[in-house]
Amino acid sequence: MEANNLSNIGESTVKDSYSLSSTQRKLLLAAAAVSSGCGLAVELLLGTLASYLVGNQALAFGIAIGVFLAAMGAGSYLSRFIAPKMEGRLLQRKLLLAFVGVELAIAPLTALLPLGLFALFVMNSSIWLGLFLVTILLGILAGLEVPILTRILEMEEGVREALAGVLALDYVGALFGSLAFPVILLPMCGMFPTAFILGALPALMVFLIGRNFSHLRRWSYIGLALGIMLLALAPATIPISNKLENNLYSAPIVKRIQSPYQRIVLTRKGKDARLFLNGDLQLSTIDEYRYHEGLVHPAMSATPDKKRVLVLGAGDGMAIREVLKWKEVEKVVLIELDPEVVKLASHHPQLKAVNGNSLKDARVEVINADAFLSVPKLKDSFDVIIADFPDPDQDALAKLYSEGFYRRLLGRLTDKGVFVTQASSSFFAPKVIACIAATLGEVGLKVNPYTVDVPSFGPWGFVLASRYELNSEKLQLPVETRFLTESLLHHLFELPKDIELGNVEINRLSHPVIVGYQMKARWLNY
User: Fold this and answer.
1) Which of 128, 178, 224, 270 is least crowded, fewest Cβ atoms below 10 Å from its Cβ?
2) How far is the C-alpha of 313 from the C-alpha of 310, rounded, in Å?
Protein backbone atom coordinates (compact mmCIF):
# COMPACT_ATOMS: atom_id res chain seq x y z
CA MET A 1 0.00 0.00 0.00
CA GLU A 2 2.87 2.34 0.84
CA ALA A 3 4.39 1.50 -2.54
CA ASN A 4 1.11 2.39 -4.25
CA ASN A 5 1.03 5.72 -2.45
CA LEU A 6 4.57 6.47 -3.55
CA SER A 7 3.59 5.56 -7.10
CA ASN A 8 0.59 7.90 -7.01
CA ILE A 9 2.74 10.68 -5.60
CA GLY A 10 5.19 10.16 -8.47
CA GLU A 11 2.45 10.30 -11.09
CA SER A 12 1.02 13.43 -9.52
CA THR A 13 4.42 15.07 -9.54
CA VAL A 14 4.87 14.28 -13.25
CA LYS A 15 1.43 15.64 -14.06
CA ASP A 16 1.99 18.79 -12.03
CA SER A 17 5.22 19.39 -13.85
CA TYR A 18 3.42 19.96 -17.13
CA SER A 19 -0.02 21.11 -16.01
CA LEU A 20 -1.13 24.46 -17.43
CA SER A 21 -2.19 27.46 -15.43
CA SER A 22 -5.44 29.20 -16.26
CA THR A 23 -3.54 32.02 -17.97
CA GLN A 24 -1.47 29.63 -20.06
CA ARG A 25 -4.55 27.72 -21.20
CA LYS A 26 -6.35 30.93 -22.15
CA LEU A 27 -3.33 32.11 -24.11
CA LEU A 28 -3.16 28.89 -26.10
CA LEU A 29 -6.89 29.09 -26.90
CA ALA A 30 -6.44 32.73 -27.89
CA ALA A 31 -3.59 31.61 -30.16
CA ALA A 32 -6.02 29.21 -31.85
CA ALA A 33 -8.42 32.09 -32.52
CA VAL A 34 -5.69 34.38 -33.81
CA SER A 35 -4.22 31.66 -36.03
CA SER A 36 -7.58 30.85 -37.57
CA GLY A 37 -8.56 34.49 -38.06
CA CYS A 38 -5.26 35.35 -39.71
CA GLY A 39 -5.36 32.22 -41.85
CA LEU A 40 -8.83 32.94 -43.23
CA ALA A 41 -8.03 36.60 -43.76
CA VAL A 42 -4.92 35.62 -45.73
CA GLU A 43 -7.01 33.27 -47.90
CA LEU A 44 -9.38 36.14 -48.69
CA LEU A 45 -6.46 38.48 -49.34
CA LEU A 46 -4.82 36.09 -51.79
CA GLY A 47 -8.11 35.47 -53.58
CA THR A 48 -8.80 39.20 -53.79
CA LEU A 49 -5.30 39.92 -55.05
CA ALA A 50 -5.42 37.23 -57.72
CA SER A 51 -8.90 38.24 -58.92
CA TYR A 52 -7.74 41.87 -59.09
CA LEU A 53 -4.72 40.90 -61.17
CA VAL A 54 -6.29 38.40 -63.58
CA GLY A 55 -10.04 38.95 -63.23
CA ASN A 56 -11.19 35.33 -62.87
CA GLN A 57 -12.69 35.65 -59.40
CA ALA A 58 -14.13 32.14 -59.19
CA LEU A 59 -10.82 30.49 -60.09
CA ALA A 60 -8.81 32.88 -57.89
CA PHE A 61 -10.83 32.15 -54.77
CA GLY A 62 -11.10 28.50 -55.73
CA ILE A 63 -7.32 28.16 -55.62
CA ALA A 64 -6.83 30.48 -52.64
CA ILE A 65 -9.38 28.69 -50.47
CA GLY A 66 -9.49 25.18 -51.91
CA VAL A 67 -5.74 24.65 -52.13
CA PHE A 68 -5.25 26.35 -48.76
CA LEU A 69 -7.68 23.94 -47.08
CA ALA A 70 -6.12 20.93 -48.80
CA ALA A 71 -2.68 22.08 -47.68
CA MET A 72 -4.02 22.49 -44.14
CA GLY A 73 -5.04 18.86 -44.28
CA ALA A 74 -1.49 17.94 -45.27
CA GLY A 75 -0.15 20.06 -42.42
CA SER A 76 -2.46 18.35 -39.95
CA TYR A 77 -1.18 14.98 -41.12
CA LEU A 78 2.45 16.08 -40.83
CA SER A 79 1.87 17.21 -37.25
CA ARG A 80 1.78 13.57 -36.16
CA PHE A 81 5.52 13.35 -36.82
CA ILE A 82 6.33 16.04 -34.26
CA ALA A 83 7.65 14.35 -31.10
CA PRO A 84 5.83 11.04 -31.78
CA LYS A 85 7.50 9.10 -28.94
CA MET A 86 7.89 11.74 -26.26
CA GLU A 87 5.76 11.97 -23.13
CA GLY A 88 5.14 14.21 -20.18
CA ARG A 89 6.98 17.46 -19.66
CA LEU A 90 9.43 16.78 -22.48
CA LEU A 91 6.54 16.34 -24.94
CA GLN A 92 4.89 19.52 -23.74
CA ARG A 93 8.10 21.50 -24.18
CA LYS A 94 8.65 20.05 -27.65
CA LEU A 95 5.10 20.83 -28.80
CA LEU A 96 5.21 24.37 -27.46
CA LEU A 97 8.53 24.93 -29.18
CA ALA A 98 7.11 23.50 -32.42
CA PHE A 99 4.07 25.82 -32.21
CA VAL A 100 6.28 28.83 -31.62
CA GLY A 101 8.42 27.82 -34.59
CA VAL A 102 5.35 27.52 -36.83
CA GLU A 103 4.09 30.96 -35.77
CA LEU A 104 7.48 32.57 -36.33
CA ALA A 105 7.59 31.04 -39.82
CA ILE A 106 4.04 32.06 -40.70
CA ALA A 107 4.55 35.68 -39.62
CA PRO A 108 7.06 36.86 -42.26
CA LEU A 109 5.64 34.58 -44.96
CA THR A 110 2.15 36.00 -44.48
CA ALA A 111 3.59 39.50 -44.78
CA LEU A 112 5.92 38.99 -47.73
CA LEU A 113 4.35 36.37 -50.00
CA PRO A 114 1.39 38.49 -51.23
CA LEU A 115 3.80 41.28 -52.18
CA GLY A 116 5.99 38.68 -53.89
CA LEU A 117 2.97 37.37 -55.78
CA PHE A 118 2.26 40.90 -57.01
CA ALA A 119 5.87 41.30 -58.13
CA LEU A 120 5.61 37.97 -59.94
CA PHE A 121 2.62 39.26 -61.90
CA VAL A 122 4.39 42.50 -62.79
CA MET A 123 7.29 40.46 -64.18
CA ASN A 124 4.82 38.55 -66.41
CA SER A 125 5.43 35.26 -64.61
CA SER A 126 2.72 32.69 -63.97
CA ILE A 127 0.35 34.17 -61.39
CA TRP A 128 -1.58 30.89 -61.09
CA LEU A 129 1.52 28.84 -60.32
CA GLY A 130 2.66 31.45 -57.83
CA LEU A 131 -0.75 31.52 -56.11
CA PHE A 132 -0.76 27.71 -55.97
CA LEU A 133 2.67 27.54 -54.33
CA VAL A 134 1.97 30.36 -51.89
CA THR A 135 -1.29 28.80 -50.70
CA ILE A 136 0.33 25.39 -50.29
CA LEU A 137 3.16 26.80 -48.17
CA LEU A 138 0.92 28.91 -45.93
CA GLY A 139 -1.72 26.17 -45.78
CA ILE A 140 0.70 23.50 -44.56
CA LEU A 141 1.96 25.76 -41.80
CA ALA A 142 -1.58 26.74 -40.81
CA GLY A 143 -2.57 23.07 -40.76
CA LEU A 144 0.04 22.35 -38.12
CA GLU A 145 -1.40 24.83 -35.61
CA VAL A 146 -4.63 23.21 -34.41
CA PRO A 147 -3.25 19.67 -33.97
CA ILE A 148 -0.25 20.96 -31.99
CA LEU A 149 -2.43 23.09 -29.71
CA THR A 150 -4.86 20.21 -29.21
CA ARG A 151 -2.07 17.83 -28.23
CA ILE A 152 -0.74 20.35 -25.70
CA LEU A 153 -4.12 20.87 -24.09
CA GLU A 154 -5.18 17.22 -24.11
CA MET A 155 -2.26 16.33 -21.84
CA GLU A 156 -4.17 18.04 -19.03
CA GLU A 157 -7.86 17.89 -19.85
CA GLY A 158 -8.35 15.00 -22.26
CA VAL A 159 -8.91 14.82 -26.01
CA ARG A 160 -12.60 15.69 -25.99
CA GLU A 161 -12.28 18.86 -23.92
CA ALA A 162 -9.09 19.97 -25.66
CA LEU A 163 -10.51 19.48 -29.14
CA ALA A 164 -13.77 21.20 -28.23
CA GLY A 165 -11.95 24.20 -26.79
CA VAL A 166 -9.49 24.61 -29.64
CA LEU A 167 -12.11 24.17 -32.39
CA ALA A 168 -14.54 26.56 -30.70
CA LEU A 169 -11.93 29.33 -30.65
CA ASP A 170 -10.76 28.32 -34.12
CA TYR A 171 -14.22 28.94 -35.57
CA VAL A 172 -14.68 32.19 -33.64
CA GLY A 173 -11.34 33.42 -34.98
CA ALA A 174 -12.40 32.46 -38.51
CA LEU A 175 -15.54 34.57 -38.13
CA PHE A 176 -13.58 37.61 -37.02
CA GLY A 177 -11.00 37.13 -39.77
CA SER A 178 -13.63 36.79 -42.49
CA LEU A 179 -15.34 40.00 -41.39
CA ALA A 180 -12.31 42.08 -40.43
CA PHE A 181 -10.58 41.70 -43.79
CA PRO A 182 -13.30 43.12 -46.10
CA VAL A 183 -14.91 45.51 -43.62
CA ILE A 184 -11.92 47.00 -41.77
CA LEU A 185 -8.48 45.96 -42.96
CA LEU A 186 -8.76 46.15 -46.76
CA PRO A 187 -10.58 49.51 -47.06
CA MET A 188 -8.69 51.20 -44.22
CA CYS A 189 -5.18 49.80 -44.65
CA GLY A 190 -4.93 48.49 -48.21
CA MET A 191 -3.89 45.09 -49.51
CA PHE A 192 -0.21 44.85 -48.63
CA PRO A 193 -0.16 46.73 -45.31
CA THR A 194 -2.94 44.34 -44.29
CA ALA A 195 -0.67 41.39 -45.10
CA PHE A 196 2.03 42.79 -42.79
CA ILE A 197 -0.50 43.43 -40.02
CA LEU A 198 -1.78 39.87 -40.31
CA GLY A 199 1.80 38.61 -40.23
CA ALA A 200 2.55 40.58 -37.08
CA LEU A 201 -0.27 38.99 -35.07
CA PRO A 202 1.19 35.43 -34.83
CA ALA A 203 4.57 36.92 -33.91
CA LEU A 204 3.00 38.95 -31.10
CA MET A 205 1.19 35.84 -29.88
CA VAL A 206 4.62 34.18 -29.60
CA PHE A 207 5.69 37.08 -27.39
CA LEU A 208 2.67 36.63 -25.08
CA ILE A 209 3.09 32.86 -24.92
CA GLY A 210 6.82 33.13 -24.29
CA ARG A 211 6.25 35.49 -21.39
CA ASN A 212 4.10 32.85 -19.70
CA PHE A 213 6.24 29.75 -20.34
CA SER A 214 9.65 30.04 -18.73
CA HIS A 215 11.50 27.84 -21.23
CA LEU A 216 10.19 29.99 -24.12
CA ARG A 217 11.30 33.30 -22.64
CA ARG A 218 14.04 33.93 -25.20
CA TRP A 219 11.60 33.18 -28.05
CA SER A 220 9.26 35.84 -26.71
CA TYR A 221 11.83 38.51 -27.52
CA ILE A 222 12.14 37.20 -31.08
CA GLY A 223 8.36 37.27 -31.44
CA LEU A 224 8.15 40.81 -30.09
CA ALA A 225 10.94 42.05 -32.35
CA LEU A 226 9.42 40.38 -35.41
CA GLY A 227 5.92 41.67 -34.64
CA ILE A 228 7.10 45.24 -34.13
CA MET A 229 9.24 45.08 -37.25
CA LEU A 230 6.33 43.89 -39.43
CA LEU A 231 4.00 46.56 -38.05
CA ALA A 232 6.65 49.21 -38.60
CA LEU A 233 7.26 48.04 -42.16
CA ALA A 234 3.55 47.90 -43.07
CA PRO A 235 3.40 51.54 -44.27
CA ALA A 236 6.52 50.98 -46.38
CA THR A 237 4.65 48.46 -48.52
CA ILE A 238 2.56 51.28 -49.96
CA PRO A 239 5.36 52.99 -51.95
CA ILE A 240 6.81 49.59 -52.86
CA SER A 241 3.49 48.26 -54.20
CA ASN A 242 2.78 51.60 -55.88
CA LYS A 243 6.09 51.39 -57.71
CA LEU A 244 5.27 47.87 -58.83
CA GLU A 245 1.76 48.91 -59.84
CA ASN A 246 3.13 51.75 -61.95
CA ASN A 247 4.62 49.13 -64.28
CA LEU A 248 1.15 47.82 -65.09
CA TYR A 249 0.04 51.06 -66.73
CA SER A 250 1.36 52.94 -69.72
CA ALA A 251 0.83 56.35 -68.11
CA PRO A 252 1.65 57.84 -64.69
CA ILE A 253 -0.84 57.05 -61.94
CA VAL A 254 -2.37 60.19 -60.44
CA LYS A 255 -4.87 58.57 -58.07
CA ARG A 256 -5.15 55.19 -56.36
CA ILE A 257 -8.07 54.13 -54.19
CA GLN A 258 -8.70 50.77 -52.56
CA SER A 259 -12.41 50.68 -51.79
CA PRO A 260 -14.21 47.76 -50.13
CA TYR A 261 -15.33 46.72 -53.62
CA GLN A 262 -12.44 47.28 -56.00
CA ARG A 263 -9.11 48.87 -56.82
CA ILE A 264 -9.61 52.25 -58.49
CA VAL A 265 -6.73 53.72 -60.50
CA LEU A 266 -6.68 56.94 -62.49
CA THR A 267 -3.79 57.57 -64.88
CA ARG A 268 -2.99 60.66 -66.89
CA LYS A 269 -0.77 61.37 -69.86
CA GLY A 270 -1.29 64.79 -71.39
CA LYS A 271 -5.01 65.25 -71.99
CA ASP A 272 -5.73 61.55 -71.72
CA ALA A 273 -6.96 60.46 -68.31
CA ARG A 274 -7.85 56.80 -67.96
CA LEU A 275 -9.96 55.16 -65.29
CA PHE A 276 -9.26 51.55 -64.35
CA LEU A 277 -11.29 49.32 -62.03
CA ASN A 278 -9.45 46.22 -60.81
CA GLY A 279 -7.00 46.69 -63.64
CA ASP A 280 -9.66 46.87 -66.38
CA LEU A 281 -9.94 50.03 -68.48
CA GLN A 282 -13.28 51.77 -67.94
CA LEU A 283 -12.78 54.92 -69.99
CA SER A 284 -10.28 57.15 -71.72
CA THR A 285 -11.11 60.83 -71.84
CA ILE A 286 -9.76 60.93 -75.40
CA ASP A 287 -12.60 58.84 -76.85
CA GLU A 288 -15.10 58.13 -74.04
CA TYR A 289 -17.67 60.34 -75.81
CA ARG A 290 -18.02 57.71 -78.53
CA TYR A 291 -18.89 55.05 -75.99
CA HIS A 292 -21.27 57.17 -73.94
CA GLU A 293 -23.04 58.75 -76.89
CA GLY A 294 -23.50 55.26 -78.30
CA LEU A 295 -24.81 53.99 -74.97
CA VAL A 296 -27.23 56.80 -74.20
CA HIS A 297 -28.67 58.48 -77.28
CA PRO A 298 -30.14 55.50 -79.17
CA ALA A 299 -32.23 54.71 -76.09
CA MET A 300 -33.18 58.33 -75.41
CA SER A 301 -34.28 58.82 -79.01
CA ALA A 302 -36.24 55.55 -79.11
CA THR A 303 -38.97 56.56 -76.65
CA PRO A 304 -41.44 59.47 -76.85
CA ASP A 305 -41.18 60.02 -73.10
CA LYS A 306 -37.89 60.63 -71.38
CA LYS A 307 -38.76 62.52 -68.21
CA ARG A 308 -37.42 59.97 -65.75
CA VAL A 309 -34.17 58.09 -66.38
CA LEU A 310 -32.56 55.35 -64.29
CA VAL A 311 -28.82 54.86 -64.74
CA LEU A 312 -27.16 51.75 -63.28
CA GLY A 313 -23.41 51.80 -62.77
CA ALA A 314 -21.78 54.71 -64.62
CA GLY A 315 -20.58 56.40 -61.44
CA ASP A 316 -18.02 58.32 -63.51
CA GLY A 317 -20.80 60.71 -64.61
CA MET A 318 -20.10 60.49 -68.35
CA ALA A 319 -23.40 58.77 -69.22
CA ILE A 320 -25.26 61.22 -66.95
CA ARG A 321 -23.71 64.07 -68.95
CA GLU A 322 -25.23 62.67 -72.15
CA VAL A 323 -28.63 62.06 -70.54
CA LEU A 324 -28.84 65.64 -69.29
CA LYS A 325 -28.46 66.95 -72.85
CA TRP A 326 -32.11 66.03 -73.42
CA LYS A 327 -34.24 68.96 -72.26
CA GLU A 328 -37.20 66.71 -71.49
CA VAL A 329 -35.34 65.03 -68.65
CA GLU A 330 -36.75 65.96 -65.24
CA LYS A 331 -35.05 63.44 -62.99
CA VAL A 332 -32.12 61.04 -63.20
CA VAL A 333 -31.56 58.36 -60.58
CA LEU A 334 -28.05 56.92 -60.51
CA ILE A 335 -27.43 53.65 -58.68
CA GLU A 336 -23.71 53.06 -58.23
CA LEU A 337 -22.33 50.40 -55.89
CA ASP A 338 -19.05 52.11 -55.02
CA PRO A 339 -19.29 55.60 -53.49
CA GLU A 340 -15.55 56.07 -54.07
CA VAL A 341 -16.11 56.11 -57.85
CA VAL A 342 -18.75 58.82 -57.51
CA LYS A 343 -16.55 60.77 -55.12
CA LEU A 344 -13.60 60.62 -57.52
CA ALA A 345 -15.71 61.66 -60.52
CA SER A 346 -17.26 64.51 -58.52
CA HIS A 347 -14.03 66.00 -57.20
CA HIS A 348 -11.15 65.19 -59.55
CA PRO A 349 -10.66 68.29 -61.75
CA GLN A 350 -10.10 66.48 -65.05
CA LEU A 351 -12.99 64.05 -64.58
CA LYS A 352 -15.28 66.90 -63.51
CA ALA A 353 -14.30 68.86 -66.61
CA VAL A 354 -15.03 65.90 -68.89
CA ASN A 355 -18.31 64.83 -67.28
CA GLY A 356 -19.50 68.43 -67.07
CA ASN A 357 -19.91 68.17 -63.30
CA SER A 358 -23.06 66.21 -64.13
CA LEU A 359 -23.19 64.39 -60.81
CA LYS A 360 -23.86 67.72 -59.05
CA ASP A 361 -26.82 68.61 -61.28
CA ALA A 362 -30.00 69.27 -59.27
CA ARG A 363 -31.91 66.72 -61.34
CA VAL A 364 -29.55 63.88 -60.39
CA GLU A 365 -30.12 61.67 -57.37
CA VAL A 366 -27.23 59.36 -56.44
CA ILE A 367 -27.91 56.10 -54.59
CA ASN A 368 -24.91 54.06 -53.48
CA ALA A 369 -26.25 50.52 -53.44
CA ASP A 370 -26.22 47.16 -55.20
CA ALA A 371 -28.42 47.60 -58.27
CA PHE A 372 -29.60 44.00 -58.10
CA LEU A 373 -31.02 44.51 -54.61
CA SER A 374 -32.09 48.14 -54.81
CA VAL A 375 -33.93 48.29 -58.14
CA PRO A 376 -37.02 46.37 -56.90
CA LYS A 377 -37.26 48.78 -53.95
CA LEU A 378 -37.59 51.86 -56.16
CA LYS A 379 -41.06 53.39 -56.11
CA ASP A 380 -40.88 55.18 -59.46
CA SER A 381 -41.12 53.85 -62.99
CA PHE A 382 -38.71 55.08 -65.62
CA ASP A 383 -38.94 55.95 -69.29
CA VAL A 384 -35.32 54.98 -69.92
CA ILE A 385 -33.11 52.56 -68.02
CA ILE A 386 -29.41 52.58 -68.86
CA ALA A 387 -27.08 49.84 -67.54
CA ASP A 388 -23.35 50.49 -67.69
CA PHE A 389 -21.92 47.66 -65.62
CA PRO A 390 -18.42 46.16 -65.89
CA ASP A 391 -17.97 43.21 -68.22
CA PRO A 392 -19.47 39.97 -66.84
CA ASP A 393 -16.19 38.18 -66.12
CA GLN A 394 -17.21 37.19 -62.57
CA ASP A 395 -20.24 35.43 -61.14
CA ALA A 396 -20.95 38.48 -58.96
CA LEU A 397 -21.27 40.60 -62.11
CA ALA A 398 -23.06 37.96 -64.16
CA LYS A 399 -26.20 38.42 -62.05
CA LEU A 400 -26.53 41.94 -63.49
CA TYR A 401 -26.96 40.40 -66.95
CA SER A 402 -29.29 37.61 -65.85
CA GLU A 403 -32.89 36.81 -66.69
CA GLY A 404 -33.79 37.31 -63.02
CA PHE A 405 -32.36 40.82 -62.96
CA TYR A 406 -34.01 41.80 -66.23
CA ARG A 407 -37.38 40.67 -64.87
CA ARG A 408 -36.79 42.95 -61.89
CA LEU A 409 -36.12 45.84 -64.26
CA LEU A 410 -39.36 45.25 -66.13
CA GLY A 411 -41.31 46.31 -63.07
CA ARG A 412 -39.57 49.70 -63.15
CA LEU A 413 -39.89 50.26 -66.92
CA THR A 414 -42.88 52.19 -68.29
CA ASP A 415 -44.97 50.66 -71.08
CA LYS A 416 -43.27 52.81 -73.70
CA GLY A 417 -39.92 52.74 -71.94
CA VAL A 418 -36.63 51.40 -73.29
CA PHE A 419 -33.70 49.64 -71.70
CA VAL A 420 -30.11 49.63 -72.94
CA THR A 421 -27.03 47.85 -71.66
CA GLN A 422 -23.40 47.68 -72.64
CA ALA A 423 -22.59 44.23 -74.00
CA SER A 424 -18.79 43.85 -74.05
CA SER A 425 -16.60 43.62 -77.14
CA SER A 426 -18.69 42.59 -80.10
CA PHE A 427 -15.59 41.28 -81.89
CA PHE A 428 -13.54 39.68 -79.11
CA ALA A 429 -16.51 38.31 -77.14
CA PRO A 430 -19.36 38.02 -79.68
CA LYS A 431 -21.27 35.44 -77.66
CA VAL A 432 -21.72 37.95 -74.82
CA ILE A 433 -23.83 40.30 -76.93
CA ALA A 434 -25.71 37.29 -78.29
CA CYS A 435 -26.34 35.99 -74.78
CA ILE A 436 -27.60 39.34 -73.52
CA ALA A 437 -29.91 39.67 -76.51
CA ALA A 438 -31.26 36.15 -75.98
CA THR A 439 -31.74 36.73 -72.25
CA LEU A 440 -33.64 39.98 -72.80
CA GLY A 441 -35.74 38.22 -75.43
CA GLU A 442 -36.52 35.52 -72.87
CA VAL A 443 -38.24 38.07 -70.61
CA GLY A 444 -40.46 39.21 -73.48
CA LEU A 445 -38.62 42.27 -74.81
CA LYS A 446 -37.87 43.12 -78.42
CA VAL A 447 -34.11 43.37 -78.77
CA ASN A 448 -31.98 45.57 -80.99
CA PRO A 449 -28.25 44.83 -80.73
CA TYR A 450 -25.81 47.34 -82.19
CA THR A 451 -22.12 48.21 -82.18
CA VAL A 452 -20.01 51.34 -81.87
CA ASP A 453 -16.34 51.67 -82.64
CA VAL A 454 -14.38 53.04 -79.66
CA PRO A 455 -10.62 53.29 -80.33
CA SER A 456 -9.68 52.41 -76.74
CA PHE A 457 -11.83 49.27 -76.81
CA GLY A 458 -12.35 48.43 -80.47
CA PRO A 459 -15.83 47.46 -81.74
CA TRP A 460 -18.15 47.55 -78.74
CA GLY A 461 -21.55 45.98 -78.33
CA PHE A 462 -24.80 47.30 -76.88
CA VAL A 463 -28.32 45.91 -76.70
CA LEU A 464 -31.41 48.11 -76.70
CA ALA A 465 -34.67 46.47 -75.65
CA SER A 466 -38.30 47.54 -75.37
CA ARG A 467 -41.83 46.10 -75.38
CA TYR A 468 -42.40 47.28 -78.96
CA GLU A 469 -40.68 47.00 -82.31
CA LEU A 470 -38.17 49.76 -82.99
CA ASN A 471 -38.18 51.65 -86.27
CA SER A 472 -34.68 53.04 -86.50
CA GLU A 473 -35.58 55.22 -89.50
CA LYS A 474 -37.75 57.38 -87.23
CA LEU A 475 -35.09 58.03 -84.64
CA GLN A 476 -34.10 61.66 -84.17
CA LEU A 477 -31.07 63.25 -82.57
CA PRO A 478 -31.91 66.81 -81.50
CA VAL A 479 -28.98 67.13 -79.08
CA GLU A 480 -25.39 68.18 -79.63
CA THR A 481 -22.94 65.29 -80.09
CA ARG A 482 -19.32 64.82 -81.09
CA PHE A 483 -19.59 61.40 -82.74
CA LEU A 484 -23.13 60.22 -83.32
CA THR A 485 -25.17 61.66 -86.20
CA GLU A 486 -28.82 61.15 -87.06
CA SER A 487 -27.84 59.34 -90.25
CA LEU A 488 -25.50 57.05 -88.33
CA LEU A 489 -28.24 56.49 -85.76
CA HIS A 490 -30.55 55.18 -88.48
CA HIS A 491 -27.99 52.57 -89.57
CA LEU A 492 -26.54 51.80 -86.14
CA PHE A 493 -28.48 48.54 -85.76
CA GLU A 494 -27.07 46.97 -88.93
CA LEU A 495 -24.75 44.39 -87.40
CA PRO A 496 -21.50 43.34 -89.07
CA LYS A 497 -21.63 39.94 -90.72
CA ASP A 498 -19.18 38.37 -88.26
CA ILE A 499 -21.53 38.96 -85.30
CA GLU A 500 -23.99 36.09 -85.13
CA LEU A 501 -26.90 36.04 -82.73
CA GLY A 502 -28.32 32.82 -81.35
CA ASN A 503 -26.57 29.55 -80.51
CA VAL A 504 -26.21 30.65 -76.87
CA GLU A 505 -27.86 29.76 -73.58
CA ILE A 506 -29.95 32.08 -71.46
CA ASN A 507 -27.94 33.65 -68.65
CA ARG A 508 -29.66 32.77 -65.39
CA LEU A 509 -28.87 33.37 -61.74
CA SER A 510 -28.55 29.63 -61.23
CA HIS A 511 -26.41 29.15 -64.33
CA PRO A 512 -24.25 32.20 -65.20
CA VAL A 513 -23.13 31.05 -68.64
CA ILE A 514 -22.20 34.58 -69.66
CA VAL A 515 -19.00 34.37 -67.59
CA GLY A 516 -17.78 31.57 -69.83
CA TYR A 517 -18.70 33.55 -72.95
CA GLN A 518 -16.76 36.54 -71.61
CA MET A 519 -13.67 34.58 -70.59
CA LYS A 520 -13.49 32.14 -73.52
CA ALA A 521 -13.18 34.87 -76.07
CA ARG A 522 -11.11 35.66 -79.13
CA TRP A 523 -8.83 37.99 -77.16
CA LEU A 524 -7.21 34.98 -75.51
CA ASN A 525 -5.42 34.49 -78.82
CA TYR A 526 -3.92 37.98 -78.76
Assistant:
1) 270
2) 10
Mean pLDDT, rounded, of the chain: 90
Q: Do residues 475 and 518 lie in contact, with contact meaning Cβ atoms separated by under 8 Å?
A: no
With contact defined as beta carbons under 8 Å apart, do 190 and 5 qualify? Answer: no
Helices (H), 356-459: 371-374, 395-398, 403-410, 430-442
Contact present, 439 and 401 (Cβ < 8 Å): yes
Spatial contact of 526 and 335, defined as CB atoms under 8 Å apart: no
Contacts of 232 (CB under 8 A, 6+ apart): none
Q: Which of 197, 219, 195, 194 is nearest to 208 (CA)?
A: 219
Q: What is the pLDDT of residue 521?
A: 59
Catalytic (active-site) positions: 388
pLDDT reading at 8 higher than 50: no
Q: Is the pLDDT of residue 9 over 90?
A: no
Read off the pLDDT band of 12 (50, 70, 90).
very low
Element (H, E) at 420: strand 413-425
Spatial CB neighbours of 171, under 8 Å, sequence gap ≥ 6: 36
